[in-house]
Amino acid sequence: MTPPNRRSRRLATEADLPDFVVLPDLASRAMGSGVVAANDELFAEKENLIKPEEPTYSTYTFGHKGQVYDGWETRRRREPGFDWAIVRLGAPGVVRGIIVDTAYFKGNYPPEVSVQGAVIDGYPSVEELEGTDWFDLVPRSAVKGDDLNSFDVDCDRLVTHVRLCMHPDGGIARLRVHGEVVADPQFIGRVNVNLAALDCGAGISGCSNMFYSSPTNLIMPGNARLMGEGWETSRRRDDGNDWVEVRLAGPGTVGVVELDTRYFLGNSPGWARVTGWSADRSHEVEILPKTRLQPDTRHRFRVDSTDEIAFARLDVYPDGGMARLRLLGELSQAGRQALHERWTNAGGPPR
Predict the structure, then answer these.
(1) Domain 14-181, architecture per CATH
(2) Closest CA to 304 of 332, 331, 282, 285
(3) CA atoms within 13 A on the CB side of 120
(4) Rounded to whole angstroms, what are the CA distances from 291 to 179, 314, 319?
């Protein structure tokens, strides 16, 4: 595995890197993680912590609050205490090592840091995180400025969230949480295809509002890399709500609904609901009841729907933006036949 890029004043050779870097970074934005809360981010926003790319720096790039840093930076503390940020990992796992990267923070890095872990089910709000039972992954430890500070972790407990603490304040460019994914069994063995995938033949069949971006973005392959790669509506000033309808790749049953609000922070929907219709639209079924959503979060919901559907409608309340919609399930015999006929009728080679 290629190690992160390093400047000469940081770790100089591949041999200097700890062994755990060959494991995936569970805190990377590329894994679907999110920074759900921080007590302070006056100088630089908390979301920078989990960018997959290396931090950068440009001299004399000043904003209203001072030099612009590619990292998380808090104001100078004038009272006892410490600053913290909570990261929801992209996948639950066992943490084997942590890197606290203070790149370009020289006179404003924290002298000490600590990292705790927790197991939190579902998608709690910031207020609901209060009282979380945190346990140590990295005890309070000294760090250097403008450096890759690495820590081996000796803990076999499952972790879904980590809390990075700066003692007392300062700036950190990146947080890397390397470990082994432990898959949630409720999502294993229930599905084998994304019925709402554009590359499987699904398409948009209706939409209430596409002011900022196309609803087709919802069913594109891969993950959104920024807010503009999702679907976003204008702000509603009435009592209604926005919606989008998807013609599925073929009739089938849904086992998992994925609603991804990644990059939508102040403009994600408050709630969402998913319903389905049969191919002739004679039968409607509720797939996911109206459910609260969190900003900048990849939500996955197991559903126990056995009804075969050919169309699905996503209702968002009241408006807002969504990065991706995925409906993971199984094609019915009729669905597989429809795909085969579509391929053959379009002149595809025999299958």
Answers:
(1) Sandwich (2.60)
(2) 285
(3) 25
(4) 31, 12, 14
Contact 323, 264 (CB under 8 A): yes
CA 308 – CA 89 distance, rounded (Å): 33
Short-list 190, 205, 170, CA closest to 77: 170
In which residue are the tokens 């990059």 written?
Answer: 263
Reading the block at residue 332, the tokens are 């019915």
Examine the pLDDT at 334 and tell me if it is beyond 70: yes
If one compares 317 and 129, the residue with the highest pLDDT of the two is 317
Q: Which H or E element spans position 162? A: strand 159-167
Tell the CATH topology of 193-345. Jelly Rolls (2.60.120)
Residue 218 has pLDDT above 90, yes or no: yes
* Mean pLDDT confidence for 184-204: 79
Q: Which residue has the tokens 């595809």?
A: 348
Enumerate the domain spans of the chain: 14-181, 193-345
The three-class DSSP label of residue 267 is: coil
In tens, the pLDDT along 26-52 reads 999 888 899 999 999 988 899 999 998
User: Model confidence over 85-121: pLDDT tens digits?
Assistant: 999 998 889 999 999 999 999 999 999 999 999 999 8
* Total-model pTM: 0.73
Work out the angle at residue 308's Cα, subtended by the Cα atoms of residues 304 and 310, and round it to the nearest 5 degrees. Answer: 120
* Domain 14-181 matches domain 193-345 at the CATH topology level: yes
Pair of tokens at residue 262: 């990644």
Other beta carbons within 10 angstroms of residue 15's beta carbon come to 7
